[in-house]
């Protein structure tokens, strides 16, 4: 398959995955803009549509203001609004669309993967491990979610599938101690990348947040600069709660980048635009399905077109 065909295939999967999010926006635009001029009432309806699509109040207000600048009091077709929306969303997302880059001068590049229960952290780690193994990198996995036997088993399965060593401890074991052992092993093995899973810390659980801080302190005893990356995995189905999670985790572990999963299971995909607009954190990848190929580097224009229901290539 050529690169062009592969990109087209991914865009089709992205369109399918975002169908629930885009259909609400696209249908809403058709309802609002059929044979009407762009006046204050219409702008208010558009703004409300964007807010209910989880783009956030301030983001929705700015987008509608920008769209109105050159079109106010003109009759406008729904397709033109969809394209204008895609352009505005692309402008917001383009600065944060940054692929995850392996730091070649770190041996290993230590990545802490955080997020709440059920966000897809363990699966994301497995998929990232697969992608880096495909490029010939040596990857070690650490099953730092010691609270759940299922999480440890799931990571071991990914380890077998991808040919990666997995460092584990008993259920209920010390996560900080496990992280320490994992770095020692990754250094001894001259690994390129160490991916450390963590328990699904709910942002209102101060004891779990304290444990995450402890994990980071212990890691830094072996490498003062580690973790070199802290990836926050967000579940798109949580909508506006994802904004709160981004804020809380950012305070605890200096989040360096985001991965958003489960975009195919929700009508709330617009929340990614709100998060990008508010926090400006790099968005490394998005997931629109269970398969390994359904976690892909984030591309602003593709996402904006899929979200707004704009089909031009």
Automatic annotation (TrEMBL):
Top enzyme category: hydrolase
Residue span(s) of domain SRP54-type proteins GTP-binding: 108-309
Keywords, in A-Z order: Cell membrane, Cytoplasm, GTP-binding, Hydrolase, Membrane, Nucleotide-binding, Receptor
Assembly description: Part of the signal recognition particle protein translocation system, which is composed of SRP and FtsY. SRP is a ribonucleoprotein composed of Ffh and a 4.5S RNA molecule.
Keyword Lyase tagged: no
Residues noted as binding GTP in the record, renumbered to the chain: 115-122, 197-201, 261-264
Main location, first listed in the record: membrane
Domain Signal recognition particle SRP54 helical bundle: from-to ranges: 14-93
CDD domains: FtsY
Name of the protein in question: Signal recognition particle receptor FtsY
């Amino acid at each position: 398959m050529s690169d062009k065909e592969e990109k087209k295939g991914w865009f089709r999967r992205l369109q399918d995955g975002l169908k629930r999010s885009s259909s609400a926006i696209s249908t809403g635009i058709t309802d609002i803009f059929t044979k009407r001029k762009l006046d204050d009432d219409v702008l208010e309806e558009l703004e409300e549509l964007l807010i209910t699509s989880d783009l956030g109040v301030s983001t929705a207000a700015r987008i509608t203001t920008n769209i109105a600048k050159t079109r106010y009091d003109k009759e406008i077709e729904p397709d033109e609004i969809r394209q204008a929306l895609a352009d505005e969303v692309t402008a917001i997302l383009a600065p944060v669309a940054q692929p995850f880059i392996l730091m070649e001068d770190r041996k290993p590049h230590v990545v802490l993967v955080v997020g709440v229960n059920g966000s897809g952290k363990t699966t994301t780690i497995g998929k990232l491990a697969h992608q880096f193994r495909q490029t010939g990198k040596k990857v070690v996995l650490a099953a730092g979610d010691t609270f759940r036997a299922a999480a440890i088993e799931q990571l071991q399965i990914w380890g077998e599938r991808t040919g990666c060593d997995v460092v584990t401890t008993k259920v209920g074991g010390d996560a900080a101690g496990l992280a320490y052992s994992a770095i020692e092993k990754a250094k001894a093995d001259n690994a390129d990348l160490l991916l450390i899973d963590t328990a699904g810390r709910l942002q209102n659980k101060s004891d779990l947040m304290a444990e995450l801080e402890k994990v980071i302190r212990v890691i830094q005893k072996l490498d003062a600069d580690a973790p070199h990356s802290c990836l926050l995995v967000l579940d798109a189905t949580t909508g506006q709660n994802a904004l709160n999670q981004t804020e809380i985790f950012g305070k605890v572990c200096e989040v360096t980048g985001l991965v958003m999963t489960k975009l195919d299971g929700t009508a709330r995909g617009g929340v990614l635009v709100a998060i990008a607009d508010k926090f400006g954190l790099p968005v490394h990848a998005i997931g629109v399905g269970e398969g390994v190929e359904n976690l892909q580097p984030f591309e602003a224009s593709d996402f904006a077109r899929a979200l707004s229901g704009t089909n031009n290539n």
